[in-house]
Every structure is written in C-alpha cells, then in structure tokens.
Design a protein that fits this description.
The protein has 7 helices and 11 strands. The chain is α/β, with parallel strands linked by helices. It has a single domain, classed as Rossmann fold. It has a 7-stranded mixed β-sheet, sandwiched between helices. It has a 4-stranded mixed β-sheet with strand order 6-7-10-11. The longest helix is centred in the N-terminal third of the chain and has 13 residues. 43% of the residues are buried. The model has no long low-confidence stretch (mean pLDDT 95).
Length: 239
C-alpha cells in the first residue's frame, strides 16, 4: 500500500491552538497540495458541520491550504474521490463511523488512502483509521451496524491514552485494564497514543512523532513502551 497517513491523538494540546502542535507534521504530509477535504461528521452536538469546518479552515488557511467540508457537496463520494487530501476531525467515534457508513464513504476513503492520498485524523478521526473502533474512549451514543473501520493500518488505536495516576483513589478501570479486556476477545495490537503524539505512516514504514512515548499492547504480552525514533514497523505486519 502507498499509504501517506498522519494519525494524531488530539487536535489541541494544553497551551496550543487548534492543530498548532502538529503544524510541521501537517505541512510535511500536505507538501505540494493546495486543498484538503474536511469530514466534520464526528461532532455530536454544540457545533454544526459549518462551524466545525470553519474552525478547520482557519487553521489550514494560515498554511496556504484551502478547506472544504464534505457536507458542502451534493455527492460526498465524488468529493472524496476527487480530493487532494482528507482530514477527519475528532468528536464521538460511534457517530463518526455511523455517518461514514450512511454516506457510503468507508470504501472510497479506504481505497484512496491506501493508494497514497494524504489522510490525517485527530482523535475519532485517528481511531477510525484502525482495524476497528473497539478501543475508542467514547460513549456509544448512537448505534453502529459494525465496528469495522477504515483499516488503513492493521491495528487499533487508543487516542488520548492516559496512564494511571499514582496515589489516585479512583476505583474505576484504567485504560490499560480496558485494553486488556479488549484483548480477551480481539487479537490485533493496540497503540496507546498520548496527547501531543502522532503516528506517521508512509508506505510500509511507520514512525512515532511528538514529545511522548507510546504504549503498545499485544495480546498475551506485557505492555511495551516505544519512544520517538524507535523501530515500530512490526505494527504494520500485525496480520
């Protein structure tokens, strides 16, 4: 596959504006491109598709990239087929995946991104790039007919990964516990992507970028930590 992906844990980190922490990586992904198609389907309330697209447009226009929202087209499939690049923003992953299927966009997104169209996601948009959405942190506020996602990479991603807080009196499950539960029923690896971190996939190569290490979970094995610069290409051979 000629993949060209930027999978970001979050759109905004503490003390930065929208996508500012990933500016250099976004520019590298979109080198030579003048436009990007934005998919605002993930927001469950509080902001309209128009308003969400305007927020993305403000960020990209500073970098000389024009933004259109997929909802602005009469034929969203054609919009994806003709897009120079695609960006799927964050929100609720269940709602996002339902809307992608409802608009028949899963197949064209998968086909174009696998053939090299630049694809970037944040949060829910990163989660749907994986094999399934089974490791999202979101509430299932809507019904989806399947958890099967875009399958741009053969593993799952847990955006916004949080480590246990030492000394905390919280008695609920940690992220690590929930991912272990996932692995009781599913065998694909899971990458816990901390805030400010991202995965860059080019063809058959993958790299961890950003200030933090990532926590990688393999079924029946102890979790492993990988720093930016470490070799994590084995993740693309998961199946």
């Amino acid at each position: 596959m000629s993949r060209n992906l930027l999978l970001i844990s979050t759109s905004t980190t503490h003390g930065t504006g929208y996508l500012e922490h990933a500016e250099e990586e976004v520019k590298a992904l979109l080198e030579g491109k003048s436009s990007i198609l934005f998919v605002p389907y993930a927001r469950p309330g509080g902001i309209s598709n128009k308003e969400y697209t305007a927020k993305a447009r403000e960020a990209f226009e500073k970098w000389g990239i024009g933004v259109t929202g997929v909802h602005e087209y009469d034929d969203p499939v054609k919009a994806v087929q003709e897009a120079e690049a695609v960006f799927i923003g964050g929100g609720n992953t269940f709602l996002l995946l339902r809307n992608l299927y409802a608009n028949n966009l899963v197949k064209p997104l998968r086909e174009r991104a696998r053939k090299g169209m630049p694809y970037m996601g944040t949060s829910a948009g990163t989660n749907v790039a994986g094999k399934t959405i089974g490791t999202t942190n979101d509430m299932p506020i809507v019904h989806v007919k399947t958890f099967e996602a875009l399958e741009l990479v053969p593993f799952n991603i847990n955006p916004h990964y949080q480590d246990p807080i030492e000394g905390s009196t919280h008695m609920g499950e940690t992220r690590e516990t929930r991912i272990a539960e996932f692995h009781n029923h599913n065998r694909q690896p899971v990458v816990g992507l901390r805030e400010g971190s991202m995965l860059r996939v080019k063809g058959d190569k993958i790299a961890l970028l950003g200030p933090h290490s990532a926590r990688v979970f393999l079924q029946t094995e102890k979790p492993m930590e990988f720093k930016p610069g470490d070799d994590i290409n084995f993740l693309l051979d998961a199946y």
